[in-house]
Amino acid sequence: MTTPFSPSAAAAGLAAAILLASPLPSSAGDWVPAWMASPQPVWSSDFLFPTDVPVRLKDRTLRQVARIGIGGRAVRIRLSNDYGRSAVRIAAAHLARSTGGMAIEPASGQALTFDGAGEGTILPGASLLSDPVAMTVAAGEDLAVSLHFAAETPVETFHWDGKAESRLVDGLHVSDADLPAGEISTQRLFLSDILVDAPDAKGTVVVLGDSITDGAGATLGADTRWPDFLAARAAPRGIAVVNAGISGARVLSDRMGTNALARLDRDALAQPKIRALILMLGINDIAWPGTPFAPDELPMTFERLTAGYRQIAARARANGIRTIGATLTPFAGALPGTPLEATYHSAAKDFLRQRINDWIRTSRTFDAVIDFDRLLADPADPMQLRPAYDSGDRLHPGDAGNKAMADAIDLDTILGDTP
C-alpha cells in the first residue's frame, strides 16, 4: 500500500535534517593567516636560476621555521601541491615553538593530524589543511613545522626564496628537540600557510608582490622584509598581514610564478577575513622583456599593464576587498655585475615606469595609494634608489629600506577606517 504524501511530514523531516547539520564542526573558529609563502611551480633546468630542490625526500625529515605575524589560541597549517602532477604523502607532521635554529621546545610539541589521522595525502593540484591544535601563540613567535616523507616524493611545488634556512635530515625526527646535521635549504617545500584562531582579529591584509616584497634584498633569516615590519606594526591592532610576494612575479606573464591574475584567487581573495589587498607588481613586466629572463618577449605597454591592474582591482572590489596600489620603485643601474645588467633597465623602460606611477597616483583605480617611488628615490637622481635604502643591487631595498616602506603605511587608511 502506498503511503500518501504529507507536506507537513516532509517539512518536519527537512527541519530534522537541518537541525542535525547545524552544529559547527570542531575545526570551526575565527581563522586568519599568520604566515604564508605563495606556491610556485618548479621550473625547468634551462632557466637562468637553478631551483636547487632536494633530489631525495624518501625517509627524510624536513623542518621549516616561520615567524607568525599575529597570535591566536589555536594553530593549523596548509600544505600545497598546487603544481604537482603526483600525490604527495606526508607520513608524519609536527608543530612546536622554535627556540632558535632547528631547536624546538619539546613541551610545546604536538603531532599534526589530517582528518584525525597522523598522515595525509596532498592530491595533485590541491592543498591539504591540517586539523587545529590547541596552542596559544603570540605575534612574532617562531614556529617549527616538521614533515616526514616515507616514500620517494617529487617536488613540483615550492616557494623559491624562503629567506630562512630549513633543514632536511635522514630518518624520522619530527619531534626531536634538535636536528642532526643535514642538508640546508632556503626554500619552502609544500608549507604554504600557517593559520591561527584569533577571535579578536579585525581582518587580513594580503601583500601581492614580486621579489621586492618577497625580500630579495633582506637579510637571510632576520624577518626584515617590508611585509614583516608591517605585520609587526599591525598585530597590536588586531590586523593580520601576510606576504604573497614571489621573486620574479609579474602581473601578466608566468615563469618564476604564475601571473597575478591567475594566482589572485588563491593567494589573496581566498584568504580568511581578507579586508585589503596591497598590490606592488609591475617592475618585472616592464624590465624582463629583452633580457636573458625573456629574450623574445615584446616590450610591455602602458595599455596592457594598466588593464591588468584594473582587472585585479575590479575582482577584489567585487569581493568587498579594498585595493591599495603601490607605485613602482626606481631601478636604474639594477643588478650590476650580472648577465642582466646591460638590458634590465633602459630609458624607455623607466619612462614607462614613471607613466605607470602617475596613473597609479591619479587614475582612482585603487581605494588608496602608497607612493613607494617617492619614498625610496634618491633625491639626487630619482631614477635610482636612495643609497641608504639600497640592498646593494640597485633594485631591491635592504633592511633599512624595507622598514621605511612599512613605517610609511597608514594602517587606518589601508583598512578604510578613516577617510
TrEMBL record:
Cited Pfam families: Lipase_GDSL
Signal peptide: 1-28
InterPro entries for this protein: GDSL, GDSL_Rv0518-like, SGNH_hydro_sf
Key words of the record: Signal
Molecular function via GO: hydrolase activity, acting on ester bonds
Name assigned to this protein: Lipase
Organism of this sequence: Aureimonas glaciei
